[in-house]
Design brief:
Layout: E1 2-3, E2 12-15, E3 18-28, E4 36-43, E5 49-55, E6 59-62, E7 65-76, E8 79-84, E9 90-94, H1 95-98, E10 110-116, E11 119-124, E12 128-136, E13 149-154, E14 159-163, E15 171-175, E16 180-184
Antiparallel strand pairs: 1-6, 2-3, 2-6, 3-4, 4-5, 7-8, 7-10, 8-9, 10-11, 12-13, 12-15, 13-14, 15-16
């Protein structure tokens, strides 16, 4: 059990029998009345984000989480197979648990797999990944005066907006949090 004054961003807690990750929290002490803590929580199972208010000093159950580095091996149907880099154990993770991370996973690519209560909760890619452009329109000189962009399909199927000078076969760095083009590599 942890008190609301021990909340930290990224902490895992159990509220009403459901597992949540704390996205943000704010201690509020109004002029009248008792202090409280306003939080934004992400449900670990569904991904839904809710707002919840706790009384200051209220205790909630904490969840032990473990993050392990793993390498992506291959995909078979709707299962993604990863190898634990420490024990070399293979783990099959369903596509719905992998979620949006599938757009950034390449063979032998490293990810962080989050376990809560001994089961896989999420797959988190690194902050930036380098992917190859497999399809994009050719950029024509003089198309725009202020620099434009065009859609490009990357090797994982993700479509991002890239500058006109990027062509098929180029490798680009993409920010996995914003899903935006960063630079050509």
């Amino acid at each position: 059990m942890i008190s609301t004054n021990q909340f930290r961003n990224g902490s895992a807690i159990r509220v009403d029998g459901k597992r949540f990750t704390i996205l943000s929290f704010q201690h509020v002490k109004p002029g009248k009345g008792h202090a409280f803590v306003r939080t934004r929580l992400r449900n670990m199972d569904t991904g839904a984000v809710i707002e919840r208010t706790f009384r200051a000093g209220e205790k909630v159950e904490s969840i032990r989480t473990d993050s392990r580095p793993m390498s992506f091996l291959y995909r078979d149907g709707d299962l993604y197979y990863f190898m634990d880099q420490e024990t070399y154990e293979q783990v099959a993770i369903p596509e719905d648990v992998v979620g949006e991370a599938k757009d950034f996973i390449t063979p032998n690519g490293e990810v962080s797999v989050l376990y809560a209560d001994g089961e896989v909760v999420s797959v988190q890619p690194p902050a930036h990944v380098e992917l190859e452009v497999v399809e994009t329109d050719p950029g024509v000189r003089g198309d725009t005066a202020t620099g434009g962009s065009k859609p490009a399909t990357l090797e994982t199927g993700l479509v991002v907006q890239v500058p006109l000078f990027v062509s098929v076969g180029d490798r680009v760095r993409v920010d996995t949090r914003t899903r935006e083009y960063q630079t050509r590599v």
